[in-house]
Specification:
alpha+beta, three-stranded antiparallel sheet, single chain, 10 strands, about 15% strand
């Protein structure tokens, strides 16, 4: 496999031929913020937080799905990108019902962490306050649609790692909604294996163990990392 030489933030680095900009940056110790990216599952470029500037290209490119090219000159933290990321985070807060003070993921939420990272203290956008329900029909877990940011990490981890494909997205635009089964209550979906991978994959408090109190979620990413690594090595077939 050939090696590509490129620069990120004026730092010369080497990357494998099929690596994405995000992977190359991570290997070089360069942080690019993400929400929809989850190590070990496919990338979809949904959140747009990983947008970068590439010299000679007038369009901003999502680092998670853009492959490296020899001689690329990339900037990851220009003032323009900082403004874009701040706007995206503000829009996510305005579009849903994210009340951190009463959320099960308060203090352990990737959306909250990114809001702190971009320095958000309010949103310039009017809050939508959508009417969304909470499904606690599953015996072990629940899903609060108010806190969903449509990153689709639950969809991909359930499909690509567990092989159950319980989750999907229905509708478009502001009518988008994560659904289980054929839009059934989660507890009625026979395909669900009760594995909890979607709970671990969720970056917010949207999918949670039942009985969890405010700020009570404690993520254990090791579970996903173990499964992903075993899958890569072919230690078992699903």
């Amino acid at each position: 496999m050939s090696v590509k030489t490129l620069s990120i933030n004026n730092q010369i680095i080497s990357a494998r031929e099929n690596e994405t900009i995000l992977e190359a940056a991570k290997d070089a110790g360069i942080h690019i913020p993400t929400l929809c990216h989850l190590e070990g599952v496919s990338n979809v470029g949904a959140c747009r937080l990983c947008l970068v500037e590439i010299e000679g290209n007038h369009k901003l490119k999502p680092a998670c799905v853009t492959q490296v090219v020899e001689g690329m000159k990339i900037q990851t933290h220009t003032e323009k990108l900082k403004q874009y990321r701040s706007m995206i985070i503000e829009m996510l807060f305005a579009e849903g019902n994210h009340i951190c003070a009463v959320c099960v993921a308060n203090g352990n939420c990737e959306l909250q962490d990114l809001a702190i990272e971009v320095g958000m203290d309010n949103s310039r956008f009017s809050y939508c306050f959508p009417h969304r329900d909470v499904d606690i029909s599953h015996p072990q877990f629940g899903i609060d649609h108010n806190r969903c940011i449509f990153c689709t990490r639950c969809v991909r981890v359930c499909d690509e790692i567990e092989g159950a494909h319980v989750w999907d997205i229905a509708n478009r635009g502001n009518q988008s909604r994560i659904i289980s089964g054929l839009n059934q209550p989660w507890g009625e979906v026979d395909a669900c294996t009760n594995c909890g991978k979607c709970v671990e994959a969720c970056p917010t408090g949207a999918i949670f163990p039942k009985g969890t109190t405010v700020a009570g979620i404690k993520r254990d990413r090791f579970k996903l990392e173990f499964l992903i690594e075993a899958r890569k090595k072919g230690e078992w077939m699903r």
